[in-house]
Amino acid sequence: MQLLINKFLIKPIGDKTSLSNSSVAGFTLVEMLVVVVLVGILAAISANSWNAFIDRQRLDSANERVVSALQDARTQAKKKRSSYSAHFQNNNGIPQYAILPEASTPSNSDWQNLLSEKANTINLSFSSSQANKLTFDYKGNAKENTVNQSIIVSPTNSSSSLKRCAVVENLLGSVIIKQDSDCP
């Protein structure tokens, strides 16, 4: 048995099939180039998907801020027992909002940016000329001119079909979120 093991598994030192002392184990230049090319192709493919993911996340975040502003206006109206409005605008390509009593007009100091970074990549549009000011009465109900109004959040690059919107659905002030083709 030992003879069989020695014969097939252990090669003699002088055997010509064993590695010579002068050769070095490693990768050839061709193998390295193939790996680099494959990594480059995978990176190029995934870059587009990553950018689309980031755009969707930024859009969702901006829409959540719009909904939050509407809910804040509604909460302030109930809390202060007075009508409050959520105002929206695009100021030099940067979407902004302000929460104020209904009769107030926003000053420069009242406006807050919708997003803290890369805000100029998002655009706000409105379902009507009245939709940039949505008002809730002292009970938190939506005023009649506020019902069925939409704040539409979309990327500034027009090639994208992505859209999100916040819609004041009824007189009770319910806000629903819609996306893409469901937005006006």
The CATH class is Alpha Beta
- Beta strand count: 8
The CATH superfamily label reads minor pseudopilin epsh domain
- Report the uncertain regions: none
Helix content: 25-40%
Strand arrangement across the biggest beta sheet = 3-2-1-5
> Helix/strand-derived class?
alpha+beta
Count every helix, treating DSSP H or I runs of 4 or more residues as helices. Answer: 2
Could you tell me the radius of gyration in angstroms? 31 Å
Order of helices and strands: HHEEEEEEEE
CATH names the topology as minor pseudopilin epsh fold
Major sheet: 4 strands, antiparallel
Just name the CATH architecture. 3-Layer(bab) Sandwich
Q: Round the mean pLDDT to the nearest integer and report it.
A: 81
Q: Would you write up a description of this structure?
A:
This protein is an alpha+beta fold and 184 residues long. It contains 2 helices and 8 strands. The strands form 2 sheets. A 4-stranded antiparallel β-sheet has the order 3-2-1-5. Strands 4-6-7-8 form a 4-stranded antiparallel β-sheet, covered by helices on one side. The radius of gyration is 31 Å and the shape is elongated. The N and C termini lie far apart (84 Å).
